[in-house]
Amino acid sequence: MSHFSDNYYELRYPISTDSTIGLRNAQLGAIHAIASFNSLSKKNAGIVVMPTGSGKTAVLMMTPYITLSSKVLIVTPSVMVRGQIYKDFTELKTLKKASVFIGGISPPSVYELKKKYSNDIQDDVITSDVIIATPQCALSLSENNIKDKFDLVLIDEAHHVPAQTWQQILLNMKDSTQMLFTATPFRMDRKELKGEIVYTYPLSMAYRDGIFGEVRYIPIEEAPDKDMLIAKEAERVFFNDRQQGYNHFLMVRTDTREKAKQLEQLYQNETELTLKRIDSSMSYRVVEQCISELKNKNIDGIICVDMLGEGFDFPNLKIAAIHTPHKSLASTLQFIGRFARTNAENISAAKFIAMNDDELIIENYKLYTSDAVWQEMIVDMSERTIRKEEEIKNNLGEYIRNDGSLSSDDTLSLHSIRPNCHAKIYHISDFNINGVFPKICGVGENVFRNLSDNTVIGIGTIKNRPIWSNTEQVLDVQNFLFIIHFQKETSLLFIYSQMKSEIDYQLIAEAFTTNYNKVPRNEIHRVLGELQEFEMFNTGMQNRFAESGESYRIYAGSNVASTIDPATGRMYSAGHVFCKAVADAGPVTIGYSSGSKIWSSSYLLIPEYVKWCDSYGLKIANESIKVKTNTNYDLMPLPHRLKNFPETVFFCLFSDRTYSSSPVVMKNPSEVSDTILMDAEIKIISISEMEIQVEVSILGFSDTIVCRVDGTCYCAESTIFLKDGRNRVSLVEYLNNYPFIFKTTDDAIIEGHEISIGEPNAIIFSSENIKSIDWGRYKIDIRIEFGEASEGLRAIQDGLEEILIQQDDFDYLIYDHGSGEIADYITIRETDHKLEVVLYHVKAMGGKRYNSDLGDIYEVTQQAIKSIIWLKSRGTLLEKIRDRRRSDHCKMKKGHFQKLEKSLKENKLFTSRIVIVQPSINRTVDLPSKYQEILAATNFYIKNSGRVTEFGIWGSGGELDSSITNPYQQVDMQHA
């Protein structure tokens, strides 16, 4: 007999509940499947597929008992995982915690094989019930006759098995029962994972059961200084999450130890994050100490080289900064699974930050992989051909300092400077070559000017106090390169700057010109002119309808233009593009973005860089150039320069960047609140041809933002301040980086200095959307939205609640009133296969007569459009409801939240409707044309969002419409 067979009858299978700890569905299914497989004749290894975080270790530990094994070999992918399983098995900690074992059961004899097998450890191996080893040590054991004593081999993280070492272990121990555990039973190299899959627990069920949480991808637009941009965004997201009360930690991921060291220095110099670096060269004790510091909250995160990707359980690890993506889908899923765990307090969605260069392919599930074409393209794209040395020297010799000395007199040779091709471009009316760089650049006297080609070079030195020092002593010194070039023929100003915020570019431009404007996309698009054989690697498209959700879609990979069709062209406008093409001189890479930027993959000498700018400047200014890529990208409409604001503007919302990671509002100069910017109320005050005034209100503060036609914002007196990452900025500063998006009643979108024209003829008003309620029947005061009404009457919200309860055709009714609300009332009906959500937005009548006051409909229609964001998915709605409940909102009027939470995790069809409740709208009274425009545009935008099936209006006029009493039935009848 053996330890495992002796204790077989001690096994219990308690089911985990909300009040007791036991085995999860995944664990119960897996262990019974293993028992079933073990009862049959076994020719192959058994494969158990369980998502990361679903409790695979407990199943692995139960397997020797359920199979009545005598001696077990467990092969783990790393020393760290080996140590974790050894510690767990020697105490049976996980199984006892889950009540699989109760009482005083003794653990098996466990031996951790830390070196290759030899005769001097033979007795330890023979007398132990369980041997735990990494592949090389396990291989040495499997090559010895002692292997015959093992009747069970368990492989953890079995997607490694096709590797030669792992495969040889299984081949050497083919007479033993073999069970393979993995979350990803496939590999990018398509090598077979041999065996019979005995149990698979799908990721959708893991999400439904609360094991696998929400994940978000936060893209970084392709640009130089990739690591810097990712680091800054990671810091911003980290501090925003912490300020919202989430106990999140960060992992910085790269692929080499040398790169990890560079990133360690970068994060230390450029952020206020406290990180530690770990890699496989470090001892287990060092790694264990680092993990301990992480769990004890002594550090903010870790910098890893393929560490903690497998077998590491720390659910608070929620933010990943991907500097180098994994090369296989299997590794990527393992990696994501580490961040999607849900078994911790005060955690939210996992966030993955990466740049959308073509090392990154965004698949349907937003998984990372590699792309062979891009791999070829990025292999050393630096420019290697140097023009004649004499031509270069002649040009560089024309640069002079402020004191008149030549650049050749300097220790630093301009010949050694090779900027990567990147430029921010402005239209300007004048150029002052003697302009002085702003102080933030730290240039001082390190300025070189070339009068013949209107180019200025500045080399800045920025000195900072280290983040770890509390003195004023300056130790951190950084150097920055700036190149200012004015193309006189086109009146275009090109700025190369390693400081890349919008305000930095503006300050530099103001130093050399008095008037500057960004280049609109229809003009900058001309950089693609006169090229052939296009291959699009990265494209971005602005969604015209999906408010604040997928407002910007990015495709990356090879030949991404093929994904665009005529329908896409109607729904989206061109955003950015990066491509490879062929010019007369040979292959080139070129990209442009809505930020008035162009870039390439090349690194050039300064004279070559100036010529690069000039060549594309001539294209941008050439109105005769008609770009034809002969790809489906030609189907995309292009935004144009905004010359004046149309009077048809009726709606305003924040940038998509605000909705992906919203900054937190400051209570006072030194204290942050728990309120995020996206909960602010936005109201358009006035519209003129040259500016729009917008009132933003939150936490009792109110700022009037003046949005100018050139895309800039102004505020006479700022009272709203934000904590965005670690930076404290005013609202107007934030909006200058991430401008408002305005929409018009004739299907145009305005963002910054650009306007995108849609299909105005598609917006048609229909009074059929207006349903009439007999408010008097319910004794409702239509001029009171909520609270106390006139004697004998009640507020609209109270009356609406009675109407909804009377219809009684839904499972859940939620009341959510207040700043940041989803809607005043939310109803949810659940069937076997579908969840149907209806949002009701309520406003009282303010005008003297029906259909007389535009104010009656402006606010409620804007709230309706804004609420689309919460209908993006079941998970998005659930997360918002949770947030509102934490702030004592979202009160359940019918149904139980725990049941609703479970329902929203199930894989059911998710449909939604939006209804505005405004008694001032009367279908029997003539509607002014402006009323019709606003209501028609609201209906058009909402129904084209892709997430809402119907927009309805509950107004006045006549008897109660019976179809109102059952909105779900109404939808069903329409589908029927």
UniProtKB/TrEMBL annotation:
Residues 225-400 form the Helicase C-terminal domain. Residues 37-203 form the Helicase ATP-binding domain. GO terms for cellular component: cytosol. This is DEAD/DEAH box helicase. The keyword Nucleotide-binding applies. Keywords: ATP-binding, Helicase, Hydrolase, Nucleotide-binding. SMART domains: DEXDc (SM00487), HELICc (SM00490). GO terms for molecular function: ATP binding; DNA binding; helicase activity; hydrolase activity. The keyword Nucleotide-binding applies. Pfam families: Helicase_C, ResIII.
